[in-house]
Amino acid sequence: MTAVHRAAALLAALVLAVSGCSTGNDGDGALPDPVVDTEVTTGIDYVALGDSFSAGPFIGAMRSDPEGCARSRDNYPAFLADWLDVESYTDVTCSAATTADLYAPMVMFNGATTGPQLDAVSADTDLVTIGMGGNDFGIYDSLIRCQAGGAEACPVADLRADAGKVAARVEKAVRRVRQAAPEAEVLVVGYPDILPTEGTCAALGVSADVLGPVADVAGVLNASLRRGATAGGGSYVDLEGPSEGHDVCARGRAWVNGPQFRLGVAAPFHPKVNGMRAAAGEVYREVTGEEPEVTEHAEPDPDAIVLNEPAG
């Protein structure tokens, strides 16, 4: 049992113990049981690594540590840190990050530089989530161009090959995390469905013949992430299956934004806050085996948050 599982089991036991306490008179004159403070921490030191699908660009309020990463206060790492009642929380996810940015400084959107994401991981780290790979080889940008430009602009064979190559990069990332944090549980988080696997909709304005190959490449990418996670000694958290029926064409049920830039909602073709909650829920279930107490906003204990200041 890892430190994360031990801590999560302790939290579950405390919650059950508290819920079993009576807070009123039992009718025989006995005094009520004392009110027990349920605000506990699991002792988990949590580090989140990843790209924009983890950072959450333009969902609600953005963090300023650093501004150039377009990191939301309501991304899935923040929800997870809240629901797990972690002791410490370091979120170094950054929009546009690739696996190369785990090991070297990254130039952010605003031109400033932030340090290697792996610098946030230490021997004291208990839990690490890794949500990246889609920006490697320019895969994500190519898929968006495919959606916009039609089948002629979409080199599907090349994209499938590149998506397959991501497995080796993810395996390396997991191994490097495990070297830095030998006792940590390492979870690679997949990507949700962005486009429908069948059909299309007016919001996209392209035919199903165009979207089919794009969705196929996205599936290859997630399969590659799973292989890399397993080969590196980590675990994989699937978002593709749970997000089926929640793509951009799902209207009110969509977990991801459509092609419009919507300040406060999400960047184009990126998760909205409900998608972030859903992702956090899947990771929480993987860690604890329990259902989370879902909240509208992520509110991890401010004392537990370790801010990620840019380097240089």
SSE layout and pairings?
Elements: H1 3-19, E1 45-50, H2 52-55, H3 76-84, E2 88-91, E3 106-107, E4 113-114, E5 127-131, H4 139-149, H5 156-180, E6 185-189, H6 208-231, E7 235-237, H7 273-288, E8 305-306
Parallel strand pairs: 1-2, 1-5, 2-8, 5-6, 6-7
Antiparallel strand pairs: 3-4
Helix pairs in contact: 3-7, 5-6
Molecular structure report:
Its EC number is 3.1.-.-. By secondary structure, the chain is of the alpha/beta class. The chain has a single domain (about 45-300), classed as SGNH hydrolase (Rossmann fold). About 35% of the residues lie in helices and about 10% in strands. It is built from seven helices and eight strands, in the order H-E-H-H-E-E-E-E-H-H-E-H-E-H-E. The strands form two sheets. Strands 7-6-5-1-2-8 form a six-stranded parallel beta sheet, sandwiched between helices. The chain has a two-stranded antiparallel ribbon with strand order 3-4. Strand 6 (about 185-190), helix 6 and strand 7 (about 235) form a beta-alpha-beta unit. It starts with a helix and ends in a 6-residue tail after the last strand. The model is unreliable at about 10-40 (pLDDT under 50).
Attribute tags:
single chain; 312 residues; alpha/beta; Rossmann fold; six-stranded parallel β-sheet; two-stranded antiparallel ribbon; 7 helices; 8 strands; 34% helix; 9% strand
